[in-house]
Specification:
The protein is mainly α and about 110 residues long. It has one domain (about 20-105). About 85% of the residues lie in helices and about 0% in strands. It is built from 4 helices and no strands. It has helices at about 1-15, 25-50, 55-80, 85-105. It starts with a helix and ends with a helix. About 10% of the residues are buried.
Amino acid sequence: MFALLGLLMGALLAVAFHPTVSQELGRYVAMAVVAALDASLGGIRAYLEHTFNDRIFVVSFAANAIVAVAIVWVGDQLGVDLVTAVVVVLGVRIFQNVAALRRRVFGG
């Protein structure tokens, strides 16, 4: 309940204040958001499967975001665009979690 309330408050604050992110940091923020979405969907999946652990969720949420941003940063330092690699890996995980959620909620 508190998580949904926090999400709603964050969305309302973003709409009200229109925060801007510089173009240099935009890539990193985008990767952190995709990683956070992956962790959130994984948490929902674990909750529905009755295996949710709040400590694991918090650690994976932060670790996913940090690792995704770090991979992109290292790629930028090396002159290699690793954004695509991170998006592909996290995208596959997101779609797997969504498919598992769909099966869990709708059966089959």
